[in-house]
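Quick illustration, no need to memorize.
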Amino acid sequence: MTDSGFTVDVDQNQYLPEGGRDVSAVVTVTSGADVSVAAPGGGADSAEIIIIDCSGSMDYPQTKMTQARTATATAIDVVRDGVGFAVVAGTSTAWPVFPTDGTMAVANAASRAAAKQAVAGLRANGGTAIGQWLGLARQIFAGYPAQLRHAILLTDGKNQHETPAQLAAQLSQCEGVFSCDCRGVGTDWEVSELRTVSTALLGTVDIVPDPAGLAADFAAMMENAMGKQVADVSLRVWTPQTATLKFVKQVAPAVEDLTGRRAQVSAQAGDYPTGAWGPGESRDYHVGVEVTPAGVDQEMLAARISLVAGAEVLGQGLVRAIWTDDEALSTKINSRVAHYTGQAELAAAIQEGLEARKQGDEETATAKLGRAVALAHQSGNEDTAKLLAKVVDVVDVESGTVRLKKQVEDADEMALDTRSTKTVRVKK
């Protein structure tokens, strides 16, 4: 345990066969009960923005807009005293609902009451341009000195009033400025669109099929945000000149490929963003390295993995490679590496299977979703297995033999898609 309150544990089979090149490790990062940001003071170090879709479709049915207002008020009540906060409304443009001048208010009883009053006046009318909404949030955050910046975004529709390129341009400017949890209410929004936002902004994405579920969900997201203590933590991976880093993925609590997000630190080291952390959190990362083979009984350091926040190193772990001619040692697959390789395959099989189903390719859809059923069963991922059972009829769980259901509720298909990346942890 380092005095930073973080631990870094590495799980791997260090032994490679003669000529072996591939080294795989699962890195578990855990924050202690006492982690805190370098500059304590809770309040002014945090800022929150709630972004609410006010497009015309939010009135069909009217419960969507009513429940969105209620949920926003519920989330405002969770914002701690001293935390900066704002509310943004989004249509084909975006505007500040509270404070109306595009600044942040400091949370206290009076400002929360004023914000809730402003939210009560929100009405549905207009289009959807999510990039515009995020752009305004970024401007508001930029004017407020907080280390932990988090937004909640709610929409019920597709991003029809701007191009994918316009959304991508806004996202690239928002990356690293704030994190964003995304929620789609109803079934007329695009999972892939919101996943693009949540992935870029290190947040979550989920469906709230019934508007009545919004308030509890908003409260939970805000509670979670209020618990964060350390901002902008990165996984720094150093590899020797004789090695090549192949991938870095978060694999628990959800699969998130970080490989393409490398920020180069030096010729042999790069940083991968993990976002903000609260006390008592634990996440797993899968790291793959290709090394130049050495002789039997030789050992090398394949990677050094550090957890960093700013200039401070919060914890460190080592990935090793040892060449052996003992087949019993070199063929043993580490159980956690095997488990998470399967969980990543499970997420991909679901997403590819649902896409094939949409395209009318029943053969591919059946094969992919059948593979997903078998993987979910093998890994004990019961939540995913339940979601799959709403989309396919399972003939044989072991072999993954399934039949596509003729009638599937949109909400069930979207829930399977949004939650496909959620993993179960394997015990050490």
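The two ends are 18 Å apart (CA to CA).
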